[in-house]
Design a protein that fits this description.
Elements: E1 13-20, H1 24-32, E2 37-42, E3 47-52, E4 55-60, E5 68-73, H2 76-85, E6 92-93, E7 98-102, E8 108-112, H3 115-122, E9 145-153, H4 156-165, E10 169-174, E11 179-186, E12 196-204, E13 211-216, H5 219-228, E14 238-239, E15 245-250, E16 256-261
Parallel strand pairs: 1-4, 5-8, 9-12, 13-16
Antiparallel strand pairs: 1-5, 2-3, 3-4, 6-7, 7-8, 9-13, 10-11, 11-12, 14-15, 15-16
Length: 268
């Protein structure tokens, strides 16, 4: 994977998918079935923060019109100035530290960071919220692997150029076939800290809508866990000739949730 040079600025922060849901409680029950459990937010106010190990997603009922990409932990003034120099125009400003860009497919890319979040990201904290040792969301339940947001694009080249302005670089895929992986790694000041990796997969005319793609977990075990929780998708697991496994299910809002693991990606 190509890495951004340590001097590349600005650091974007954590990438958190924010999902627009019709029924928050129903969505909470669905995602809990494969280990994404609530650790923050306020159900009474129609939003929730979910976590499974190093995976984090946020759910919103009635607050956002469609799914968006939320970067948190970067320094807002630096990000806004740098992206403006690269030709991107802020669509909406929300207060002093929040703003929104629209990508070429009219997807909102939302930057929103308080000073404490910037400090936490710079210190190497792997998620937006601190993780107490006793946190039940860490190291328990099924291991989903890593999460990649797969974005449905109208024009791959134009969307690629937009995200390259954010500092993501090609890291795989085949543009001739209509898909591309973009990634960046923010190098933190302390060499002992883990690299914060951001990746997106772009697909032109290959997927019906944006998709949550979990990679690296044991797909057969995930299917068993889902069956025990009431979603029996075991017969839908596909096994490739090389031993790779995949499973596609739909969430309550008809959003594709794709589990896909090739042998080199296995985390178990």
């Amino acid at each position: 994977m190509t890495s951004i040079h340590p001097s590349e600025q600005p650091q974007l922060g954590w990438l958190v998918p924010c999902l627009a849901v019709q029924d928050l409680k129903n969505s909470l029950e669905f995602y809990a079935k494969f280990g994404l459990l609530q650790y923050g937010g306020d159900v009474a106010e129609d939003w929730a923060m979910l976590r499974n190990r190093a995976i984090e997603i946020h759910l919103f009922q009635g607050h956002i019109p469609r799914d968006l990409l939320n970067f948190r932990g970067g320094e807002p003034d630096e990000i806004r100035a740098a992206l403006s120099e690269r030709g991107l125009t802020v669509r909406t400003v929300l207060g002093e530290r929040s703003f929104i860009f629209d990508d070429p497919d009219h997807r909102e890319v939302f930057f929103d960071s308080g000073p404490s979040e910037v400090a936490a990201y710079q210190s190497g904290q792997p998620l937006t919220g601190a993780i107490p040792e006793e946190d039940v969301h860490v190291g328990t339940g099924i291991d989903l692997g890593n999460l990649t947001c797969c974005l449905a694009c109208t024009h791959l080249k134009i969307t690629k150029e937009f995200y390259e302005h954010l500092g993501l670089v090609p890291a795989g895929g085949d543009p001739e076939e209509g898909w591309l992986i973009l990634a960046r790694r923010d190098h933190l000041p302390d060499p002992g800290k883990r690299l914060m990796t951001t990746s997106l997969s772009l697909f032109q005319d290959m997927i019906p809508r944006d998709t949550l793609n979990f990679r690296g977990g044991n797909v057969a075990e995930i299917a068993e866990a889902l069956a025990e929780a009431g979603i029996d998708a075991r017969d839908e697991v596909k096994v490739a000739a090389d031993g790779g496994e995949c499973l596609l299910i739909m969430d309550p809002d008809e959003r594709p949730v794709f589990f896909d693991t090739t042998p080199p990606e296995r985390l178990y």
